[in-house]
Amino acid sequence: VQLVESGGGSVQAGGSLKLSCSGSGYVFSRCVMDWLRQAPGKEREIVSTISTDDTTAYADSVKGRFTISRDNANNILNLQMNSLKTEDTAVYYCAAICLGFRYWGQGTQVTVSS
Fold this sequence. Notes:
114 residues; mainly beta; seven-stranded mixed sheet; 0% helix
């Protein structure tokens, strides 16, 4: 199982970024997918989750600003991030839970400046 994130970068506060995660080596549609992030000096936290039935959940800090989606046909997980804040600065990871095992991508840096 391989997960590769893309789309990170630097943006000013109030801007938008779209992260994507391309997966291979498993049946994507059977996995619960997460976006997580880790800021310097902080613990990794779950940002958003999408279940196999497309049910979504978000951390309170990103509700109304971030949207998670999945394209099972192409094994792609997306995170649309709008109205970005400086506190959204972190390394963002996608993760898959497939048949009880968790797999991680390598992470992509998102930096939001004021």
